[in-house]
Fold this sequence. Notes:
Strand content: 15-25%
CATH architecture of the largest domain: 3-Layer(aba) Sandwich
Distance between the termini: 37 Å
Largest sheet: 7 strands, parallel
Low-confidence stretches: none
CATH topology of the largest domain: Rossmann fold
Number of strands: 11
Helix content: 40-55%
Strand order of the largest sheet: 3-2-1-4-5-6-10
CATH superfamily of the largest domain: NAD(P)-binding Rossmann-like Domain
CATH class of the largest domain: Alpha Beta
Shape: globular
Amino acid sequence: MSTYLITGGAGNLACQLTHGLAALGHGMVLVDVASAPVAPVAADCRYVRADLSVPGTMGSMVADVRPDVVIHFASLLSGSSEANRFLAWTINADASFALFEAALRWNVGQVFFPSSVAAYGGVLPDPVPEEQPQWPAGLYGVTKLVVERLGAYYHVRHGLDFRAIRVPVVISRFAPPGAASAYASRAFVEAAACGRFVFRVRPETRPAVIYVKDLLRAILALLGARAARLSRRVYNLQALSPTAAEIADAIGRRLPQARLSFEPDRETTALVEGWPVRFDDAAARRDWGWQPHYDLAALADDFLQELLP
């Protein structure tokens, strides 16, 4: 059994990942500034409140827990990063640097980082190749790219086992409502709960997306992959690329009484449409067997079955 320290432990992905890790027999310490997790966590998790924007906190957490693996979810999201650039850099970049230094000092065996499609920018080919240059337009994407490069540096120069996935838009019931990427999740959640949803993107908007169950499987697969099999430090994933109209249609076929409409917000639309549509993920498929299980129809069936009373 290994001990996992999960930063951003109150968040959507962290909470859901605990169940898969617990099933494998691992122990977990979750750390977050929030008062409580947003979703149920595995029974054996320990939850610690701490503010990683305070200098020294990250190092202290690693020193106290002495984890075998750190999963570093802690991050200010895109809108909050633009609203408070100083705090965004402190949490997203400075705390990550402190984590890498602490990982070396306390012999952490592995660090996993969920990067983002926001680490790209500019005019992107379809699909985005593995070695596509990255020029993110938002500060959130900039900080994700910074941590990718830091992780690669600590691997090459100091031997740290750093692994990362560039996470597409995640469809999950616990997606943060205020995030630009949350429209795909909230469409299902609000249609099921309230019978209506207003998309703030265009019907044609179609960034790469992934169902949370596929993403959790991918994270566990990469965490468990043999180091000798890995050809890179940061991996792209490709699962789905439906338009917002196709998502609306999938919901409407299953919930015909739901009122779904489009009132695009220009800023949100521009941000989301700047993200990649599809990825070349050949390395993930070759190195650790990545393969999505859910197409849009299967996703809609499974997700709405969970959401409906």
